[in-house]
Amino acid sequence: MSITTVGRRGQATRSGEPRKYSLDAVILTMAIACGLTVANLYYAQPLLALIAATFGISRGAAATVVTVTQLGYAVGLAFLVPLGDRLDNRRFACWALLAVAVALAVAALSPVFPLFLLMSAIIGVTSVTVQVLVPFAARLAPAHQRGRYVGRVMSGLLLGILLARSVASVAAATWGWRSIYLISAVAMLLLAAALWRILPSRPPATSTGYGRLLASALPLIRAEPVLRRRALAQAMMFGAFSCFWTSIAYELISAHHLSQLGIAVFALVGAGGAAAALIAGRLGDRGLGRPVRGAAIALGVAAMLLAGAGAGSLVLLAVAAVLLDLAVQANHVLSQRDIYGLRPDASARLNTVYMTTVFIGGAAASAVSGALTEAAGWTAAALFGAALAALAGLVYGYDLARGGGPRTADASSDPAGS
To answer: Which DSSP helix (H) or strand (E) runs through 72?
Structure first.
């Protein structure tokens, strides 16, 4: 099998060999791929009321779709993503996309809720292509520009997260809520073909067997305190994010009487948070990761408090959504920048530990927020989200008290100096 390499300008290679593409073109393709794939995890959030009505279930039961999808993603992170250090990333990503396409198609056609719930879990498991591509991008980028390139990929990922809710709502209003799953299934097939053509092949970073590879992630947890702290803090931040977006659709429908198209417009407002990825990545490259992380966590707490206090105002809720997205994404990009610089030969396993922790936090928060919304309303869910962000602040404070841990992480991920 011929090996695709990355050149400065796109050019045809000898007959029968893959084409060469510039690093910028490869990173752009990765950003688009991450956005389209991660969107699969969020399509259900604005559709929960419609899903509940279709299957004749309660709002709390419908919210389990989000929880199960995120838990499925955590399973994929724990058991599939480590293979990114063992297998050719290009082939791995393409096969995962084919699998998620099948799961999406079955979900679209599911006649009963248990089958739909099962497919939601499989969609989560097979959408882990994102977490293979992000560390792949970090490996391709020059060390002193890692934050910039990871930020570009993460911008695509965040746009996928934020636009997923708007696209799902528009599709539901136009063709019914099931249509988005069929549309995404087709998109995954097209994306697999595009990635196969443009991505460079990446030789395995290790020849370790699968069992030993999984087991080797555990020593990383013990050996890397920066990894532990970044993962725990982002789990709390993502929990606040999940709290907001799992419960907000019910609030918008019941208190503000928005239609699915209205929800689409509201979700679109939050897309402004995508700018945080590029800005945070560049600030991290300049050695400002520590203060920016602190500001991001404080902003997350303020955003959730604003969301709870401003429940009667669509404008305040929209402002809270933008601020929360900015906060969560900035902290996420800087955290990933730090952990990818710890051990470049174990980037997939580091990412496994980090992202599994993050999505377990998000899944737990989604389950709790769904129950809180049904029992006590939106304000209770928002206050819960604020408490989660405040816990991230405690982790950050402990990080500072350790005497320069964050600064060390910043330096280690930028050998050229910041």
So the answer is: helix 59-79
